[in-house]
Amino acid sequence: MSDSITENETLEISKSQRKREAQELVNLAKEIIAMTESRFKKLPLDEDLRSAIEFARSIKPYGARKRQLMTVGKMLRLRDNADLLDAVNNFDQKTRQANARFHLVETWRDRLIEGSDQVLSELLEQAPAANVQTFRQLIRNAKKEATLGKPPSSSRKLFKLLRELDTQSPLPPP
């Protein structure tokens, strides 16, 4: 017997594999039900599936919601979900990218506050349009607030300034 599959033979999926795939679709349904309304409206869903998910979102008791979740999972098994998976993954990817940008700005802020003038000159090489005087003043005030134990208002202002700078032209990795 050969290892390759001929045209007449079909590969049978094990029961365990079918259960794993069904559970993945139920997890997808959970994720869709938990989405914000704005994201949910952007998903490519047919009318039956959309109404079933909206009904599941409106149910509060645990048992009834779980039964409706299983119904939505079964509805997903009967459909081609490639477009839906792409849309959900696209949302996830955008969220990850936004989080990465946020952490990059945080890292730059922390480096500027903790570092020397060399860190500021590194930043200014990458963003020559930045106002040097404003940056120096905010850094100096943030250091002073940290030593006195005051609320970090200058640190927040520095973060906002860096975020604006990042939207104009992306900050380089630190």
Please write out the topology.
Layout: H1 15-34, H2 37-42, H3 47-58, H4 62-77, H5 82-114, H6 117-126, H7 132-148, H8 153-168
Describe this structure in words.
By secondary structure, this protein is mainly alpha-helical. The chain folds into two domains: 15-79, Orthogonal Bundle (Diphtheria Toxin Repressor, domain 2), CATH 1.10.60; 95-168, PSPTO4464-like domains (Diphtheria Toxin Repressor, domain 2), CATH 1.10.60. The protein has helices at 15-34, 37-42, 47-58, 62-77, 82-114, 117-126, 132-148, 153-168. The longest helix has 33 residues, at 82-114. The radius of gyration is 26 Å and the shape is elongated.
Provide a concise account of the structure shown.
Helix content is 75%, strand content 0%. With 174 residues, the protein is mainly alpha-helical.
Key features?
single chain, 174 residues, Diphtheria Toxin Repressor, domain 2, 2 domains, 8 helices
- The CATH topology of the largest domain comes to Diphtheria Toxin Repressor, domain 2
CATH architectural group of the largest domain: Orthogonal Bundle
How far apart the termini lie comes to 58 Å
| Class inferred from helices and paired strands | mainly alpha
**Any low-confidence stretches, pLDDT <50, length ≥5?**
none
Radius of gyration: 26 Å
Number of strands: 0
CATH superfamily of the largest domain: PSPTO4464-like domains
Globally, the shape reads elongated
Order of helices and strands: HHHHHHHH
Q: Indicate how many domains the architecture comprises.
A: 2
CATH class of the largest domain: Mainly Alpha
How would you characterize the largest beta sheet? none
- Chain-averaged pLDDT: 84
Which percent range fits the helix content?
over 70%
Strand content: under 5%
How many H/I helices?
Answer: 8
